[in-house]
C-alpha cells in the first residue's frame, strides 16, 4: 500500500503556518518571548506554570493562554489566582491547539504590558507536535511518573523541541525511572537538547529553568 499526503491536510497545515508566522511577528513586535508548553495529560504543566509565575512575577509580566479540550476554567483559574492574566481557549474536543486559536487568545491578552506569554497546550504527546503556534520556543514536560521509555514510544514530539523539563523529580524514589535511559532516548532524537529536571512540589531545579527563561525574555527585548 502506498501512502499519499492528502492535499487538503497539507493546505490546512500551510494555512496554520502562515498564521503562526504572523503570531510570532506580533509577539516579537511587542518584545514578548512566547513559549509553547506541551506534555501528556497530568504531567504537571499547570503546576509548573503556576510555580514559575509565583517565582518570576516580581521581575516580569507574564500572560498565559490556557488550552483545554472542554470549556472548563480549572487551569486558568489557578493561573489567575497565581497573579497572571489568563485566557481560556477551548478546542471543542480537538487534541491540539492551532495558530488561529492562539491568535484568538492573544487578542484577549494585554500584549502591550507583557514580557512573557506561556501557552499551555492540550495534554497529548502526539497531535501538538505537528502544529506551529507562533511561539519562539517549544517546551515539553515529561514527568518521571510517565516512565523513562517515552522518547522511544513518542519520538515525534521530542524532535522539534527547544527545551525539555523532566518534572515531578520528587517522585523518583517511588517510581521505576532510569534517567540515563530517558536521556539516551532524547539524545538520539534531539542531540544536545537543553534539559531541566524539576519538581513543582519542592521547587528543586527551578533556578536553572528560571535563569534560562529570563535570558530568553531578555533576548526578546534586545
Ligand atoms: N509530586 C508531584 N506532583 C506534581 C508535581 N507537579 C504536578 N503535580 C501533580 O500532578 C497532578 C497534575 O498536575 P497538573 O499541573 O494539573 O498537570 P497538567 O499537565 O496541567 O494536566 P492537564 O492540564 O490536565 O493535562 C496534580 O495532582 C499536581 O498536584 C510535582 O512536581 N510533584
Ligand atoms: Mg493543566
From TrEMBL:
Name the SUPFAM superfamilies for this protein. Answer: P-loop containing nucleoside triphosphate hydrolases
User: GO molecular function of the protein, one example?
Assistant: GTPase activity
Record's keyword terms, sorted: GTP-binding, Hydrolase, Metal-binding, Nickel, Nucleotide-binding, Zinc
Domain of life per record: Bacteria
Sorted alphabetically, which InterPro entries does this protein's record hold?
Answer: CobW/HypB/UreG_nucleotide-bd, Hyd_mat_HypB, P-loop_NTPase
Instruction: Enumerate the spans annotated as CobW/HypB/UreG nucleotide-binding domain.
Output: 36-191
Q: Its GO biological process terms?
A: protein maturation
Q: Pfam families given for it?
A: cobW (PF02492)
* Family label: Belongs to the SIMIBI class G3E GTPase family. HypB/HupM subfamily.
What is the protein name for this chain?
A: Hydrogenase nickel incorporation protein HypB
